[in-house]
Amino acid sequence: KLTIETFPQTHNRVKIVLVDNNPAHNNMLAEKFEIIAKQNETTWKIVVVNRNWKCRSKGEDAGWGIEACD
Asked: By CB neighbour count within 10 A (0-12 exposed, 13-18 middle, 19+ buried), where does 53 fall?
């Protein structure tokens, strides 16, 4: 299951958050991408992309991180 949320930012930017609650990696509980995109006159430019995940071994209450899942 993939969820998508958008959040307006300043300077014609938008934060896009994609969460995959059924990631391909068996040890991951969920995977998240945070994208900052800027709109110019007719195009969009990706400014920043961050990726993090929750590990299945750490349970539902574990926060988002970038450590390897065991």
From this structure: buried
